[in-house]
Amino acid sequence: MAQAIWSGAINFGLVTIPVKLFTAVRTDDLGFNMLHAKDEGRIKYERVCSVDGKPVPWDEIVKGYEYEKGAYVVLTDEDFKKVNPVATQSVDILEFVDLEQINPMYFDKAYYLEPSKQGRHAYALLRAALNEAHKVAIARVVVRTKEYIAAVKPIGEALVLELMHWANEIVAPSSLDLPRHGALPEAEMKMAKMLVDTMTVDAFEPEKFTNRYHDELMAMIEARAQGKELPKAKKAAAPRSKVVNLMDVLAQSLEASKKQRKKSATTRRKKSAA
Fold first, then answer.
1. Which fold has domain 6-25+84-168?
2. What backbone torsions phi and psi does residue 40 show, to the nearest 5 degrees?
3. Per the CB 3.0–4.6 Å rule, which of 17, 150, 197, 251 could disulfide with 119?
4. pLDDT confidence bin for 242, thresholds 50/70/90
């Protein structure tokens, strides 16, 4: 059973909804240890002072902020406690907004909110209100001594708390050299729209996309662990030829997309027949 990482309440006006916070997203990254090739011994790392070159024990290490080259302000644990946000154990809803008004780049990490037995009715009420109004709630929350701005939004039967980046953390695209909006050749636009149409699906099905790198790496690890023959290395794809004419590229892409769509339809029919 999943373990709650936080317990508190959603504060919605004068309404309090006791909830628990559960991780909604997990990664499948593989972890590797650094080993000595000669005997597979684990590699240990020492904390060494850059001034005297000697190892430093943890009780002699402090945190410092480099405010200019080579100059530091040292902060103690007490200093950090003075500015730590108060762990209110609450999701304080501040306002409501249309989801479309929020740049998706602001969203960072999602968590499920599960109500306690006493909070189930109020939880359902907030969920229904958000659904009918087509709004999300913007809130402040402190998780593990760090304060966040967050969105509370309904997804199916759950309310999801999605931690967000602060405004000053988002890099403006104005710092990039981008082409301006303007008229484009009509023939190219027509071909591009046709390509989009042939690649458009009725619904996004994330289950059909798999992490091929992860799967192939695990297959290699399992084969080696069992002393089996390793899978043959895949040949690198041939580099694409440089086609100067954009229309030629679009036409080639459109033809390839039609073939792929026909192949996918055939595969689905075979699966249905089976």
1. Ku70; Chain: A; Domain 2 (2.40.290)
2. 60, 25
3. 17
4. low
